[in-house]
């Protein structure tokens, strides 16, 4: 992979001047390469990876689920057409074609377990071409995008006594 892309993947906030020093190229050239990546869709978005346990906001957290989806490939388009229909739903945060016992892996976000269940039962499962679904609710994040989350200090577990 391109050195500039690797630097941005690791830390998208790295100043262009620092990137230029790291890759031994002029700042203007690095800026031009980054703009080209943004224009042609190579760089789609810059994002922050947030540890939800460290956020002090008391608003209800979104519920995330991984959903395994078995689908029937369609003649001449394979999995692409049904994947496009599925990833068009606003609840779908990510959609991957995978190998193994199912075909698509979805990352879904909803306001509650019930809203995720409603998405699966009313939108996803009845869709033509969907053979089966298996839903796994995410309970806790330990690591995301290569970053390990620092856990809040203190033991919140209750002692078990008999």
Characterization of this structure:
- It is a single chain.
- The protein is α+β, with helices and mostly antiparallel strands and 162 residues long.
- The protein has two domains: 3-40, no CATH class; 63-140, Lrp/AsnC effector binding domain/regulation of amino acid metabolism (RAM) domain (Alpha-Beta Plaits, 2-Layer Sandwich).
- The chain contains five helices and six strands.
- The protein has helices at 3-10, 16-23, 27-40, 80-87, 113-124, and strands spanning 63-71, 92-97, 104-110, 130-137, 143-144, 147-148.
- The strands form two sheets. It has a four-stranded antiparallel β-sheet with strand order 2-3-1-4. Strands 5-6 form a two-stranded antiparallel sheet.
- The protein is flat, with a radius of gyration of 21 Å.
Features:
162 residues, alpha+beta, Alpha-Beta Plaits, 2 domains, 4-stranded antiparallel sheet, two-stranded antiparallel ribbon, 5 helices, 6 strands, 31% helix, flat
CATH architecture of the largest domain: 2-Layer Sandwich
What count of structural domains? 2
Total strands: the figure is 6
| Neighbour order of strands in the largest sheet | 2-3-1-4
List SSEs in N-to-C order. Answer: HHHEHEEHEEE
> What is CATH's topology name of the largest domain?
Alpha-Beta Plaits
Overall morphology: flat
Count helical runs: 5
**Chain-averaged pLDDT:** 90
| Assembly form of the protein | single chain
